[in-house]
């Protein structure tokens, strides 16, 4: 392990609302990150710079180093990762907030507005397993929307934990009725999951071992 990495089984979480006006100072970015930002449309470039600066700030605080020292690789549209020995990270963002997780073990997170509107019944029938559909068949309306949202959050966080893709892996992840774990039917892999609420948002965290979530706290950065 690298000398900067903290010990223990704690998973760290940070969340930032878009309206908090995060920094957009390019001087805090690496030359590579600046080049990536310059290749993007203006609106996306601003979001990219702000999210990478925020990630670096959070991780620097955790590891006790400067933001520029964090060995973060996070190109546009690609899951971010840290150099070996620095732990594992996962990033999620929705329309008005971002969520970042760090752990000594692989981790995945997903974030959505708790009130997000979508066609719950259609999504369930198209993407959920037979077991999941049987668990949800008795629900309708708002209850069905909430139940489908929670399972979708866990599925996406599990795919990020796996470093898979929605296209290849979504149909294989089966979320338990208790919402405490999920299983990949093809890989025969089972992971622990936890759902949380924060203000207007709902989030899921996926880890290999439930102990990795012991004493896990959310920092509103």
Overview of this protein structure:
The chain is of the alpha+beta class. It has six helices and eleven strands. The strands form three sheets. It has a five-stranded antiparallel sheet with strand order 6-10-9-8-7, with helices on one face. The protein has a four-stranded mixed sheet with strand order 4-5-1-11, covered by helices on one side. Strands 2-3 form a two-stranded antiparallel sheet. The N terminus is likely disordered.
What's the quick description here?
This protein has helices spanning 31-38, 42-63, 120-127, 130-136, 141-162, 166-169, and strands at residues 12-17, 72-73, 81-82, 88-94, 97-103, 107-113, 173-175, 181-184, 189-198, 201-207, 218-220. The chain has 221 residues and is an alpha+beta fold.
Structural features:
globular; single chain; alpha+beta; 4-stranded mixed beta sheet; disordered N terminus; 32% helix; 5-stranded antiparallel beta sheet; 221 residues
- Principal-axis shape equals globular
Low-confidence stretches: 1-8
Main beta-sheet strand count, sense and barrel state? 5 strands, antiparallel
Helix content: 25-40%
Strand percentage, roughly?
A: 25-35%
Secondary structure class reads alpha+beta
Total number of β-strand segments? 11
Quaternary organisation of the protein chains: single chain
Mean pLDDT: 91
- Separation of the first and last Cα atoms: 26 Å
Radius of gyration: 18 Å
Count up the helices: 6
Strand order of the largest sheet: 6-10-9-8-7
Q: Strand-and-helix sequence, N→C? A: EHHEEEEEHHHHEEEEE
């Amino acid at each position: 392990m690298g000398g900067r990495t903290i010990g223990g089984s704690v998973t760290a979480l940070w969340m930032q609302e878009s309206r908090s006006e995060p920094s957009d100072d390019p001087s805090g970015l690496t030359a590579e990150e600046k080049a990536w930002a310059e290749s993007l449309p203006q609106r996306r470039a601003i979001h990219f710079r702000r999210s990478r600066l925020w990630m670096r700030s959070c991780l620097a605080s955790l590891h006790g180093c400067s933001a520029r020292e964090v060995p973060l690789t996070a190109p546009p549209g690609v899951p971010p990762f840290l150099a070996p020995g620095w732990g594992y990270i996962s990033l999620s963002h929705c329309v008005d907030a971002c969520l970042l997780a760090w752990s000594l073990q692989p981790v995945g997170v997903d974030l959505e507005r708790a009130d997000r509107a979508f066609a719950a019944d259609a999504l369930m029938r198209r993407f959920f397993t037979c077991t999941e559909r049987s668990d949800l068949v008795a629900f309708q309306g708002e209850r069905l929307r909430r139940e489908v949202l929670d399972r979708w959050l866990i599925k996406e966080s599990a795919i990020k934990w796996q470093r898979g893709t929605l296209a290849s892996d979504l149909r294989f992840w089966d979320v338990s009725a208790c919402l405490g774990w999920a299983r990949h039917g093809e890989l025969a892999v089972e992971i622990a999951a936890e759902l949380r609420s924060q203000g207007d948002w709902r989030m899921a965290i996926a880890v290999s071992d439930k102990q990795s979530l012991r004493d896990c706290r959310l920092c509103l950065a």
